[in-house]
UniProtKB/TrEMBL annotation:
<keyword id="KW-1133">Transmembrane helix</keyword>
<keyword id="KW-0812">Transmembrane</keyword>
<feature type="transmembrane region" description="Helical">
    <location>
        <begin position="197"/>
        <end position="216"/>
    </location>
</feature>
<dbReference type="InterPro" id="IPR013229">
    <property type="entry name" value="PEGA"/>
</dbReference>
<dbReference type="Pfam" id="PF08308">
    <property type="entry name" value="PEGA"/>
</dbReference>
<keyword id="KW-0472">Membrane</keyword>
<feature type="domain" description="PEGA">
    <location>
        <begin position="33"/>
        <end position="96"/>
    </location>
</feature>
<feature type="domain" description="PEGA">
    <location>
        <begin position="117"/>
        <end position="185"/>
    </location>
</feature>
<protein>
    <recommendedName>
        <fullName>PEGA domain-containing protein</fullName>
    </recommendedName>
</protein>
Amino acid sequence: MKKVANMMGIIGLVIVLLLAGVACSTAVLPPEGYLKVTSSPSGATIGLEGPEGPFVGPVWETPYAFTNLKPGTYTIHLHLDGYQDWSTTVQLMANSPPQSIDATLAPIPTPTPPATGSISISSSPSGAYIYLDGTPKGYAPLTIHDVSPGTHAIKATLAGYEDWATNVEVTSGSTASVSASLTRTSTPTPTPKVPTTVLSVIVALAISSIIAAAKVRRGGKYQKR
């Protein structure tokens, strides 16, 4: 009886070990054509291209595991807002072990502010010609771009108005505003013009007066030279 009990115990142990081995082999071995894609940060959209072209289907996001992929070359594309796009290529072989792709996504760099500024110029009345540091730029209103930071001289000219000038401070990445208010030039009082006929009469009378005075000085006799 004791022998039978020992034998039954050995048989039961063998059965337990066999079942455990089958369970372990089933749990450890992933399906064939296994490719797991993860990213940091997660949530990136996955694009997959295989030997037969791009995969079309639902939206896959990391982490995600593809299974039953045929042997061949696969390209993985990852996209996540605020991060630079990422891609890589992997080769899957027949009966190859499972493969994993772990991508570290780089943030999109913050744009560098421009190293120059701008000047927006208007004039009253409009149409004044604008000079920047002595260089002609055009008629107001206008905006001058790519101006180096610092102090710059602005001059506005318009026919019938006095020249207008000022200095403006320009900083990188910003636009300085200038408004030129022009003043009319003062009109000089014109000198009255004497008519030619009146002037001729005045000259003739002056000559006659001179001749008459000369006759008086010579005793009423006019002597020719």
